[in-house]
Amino acid sequence: MNYPLSLRALMASLLLLLSASSSGSEAAASEQSSAGPLLKIILELDGFPHAEQVQYSSETVLDYEVGLGAMQKQMGDWQFKRSERLDADVLRYTWQIIDGFTSSELYDNLLKQVEQLPQSERLFICEARACGNGAQWANRVFRQRLLYGRADAQRYAVYRVNTEPGYWLLAYASARSADRQYLHVELLRLAPQLEE
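Structure tokens predicted for DUF4892 domain-containing protein (196 residues):
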């Protein structure tokens, strides 16, 4: 569903506040301040007039596999060259980029903003064929076939923001044609036992 920006912001904020409220008001304030910059970046992107939200979800995931390497075929099975499994609350957004803008432009802007955050650390980045098979990223990793695009047009990055609690941000950009440009972003709030 495509909700107005203020409702989307309220939903994302409520999700994070509810998860933090069980730890007391001091923990909730810390949660808000650590997630605030990342949520602000995502919600600004969600409000961008040339990015049409096509998917949004939030869920708690156990043992979520985050790719820290290219997709490659090993012994007949597609796998990440390297990955890490995390327990986390996950917010997922997918936008179709419209009106002549490209997914690469928005992806680059997103990464610039994340890199400017204090305590952000890039864990992995790839472009084009160096990412591996695009169909596997779309179907196996993100479970959204609309993300499948040209191999030379895919881009993927993973960042960790070392705050309390810890956050990871995943960004994937793809393009099938000038009219079918997509950006997918996932924000992971780590479960307390996995914070570093």
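Strands lie at 51-67, 71-74, 77-80, 83-97, 120-127, 155-161, 167-177, 180-190.
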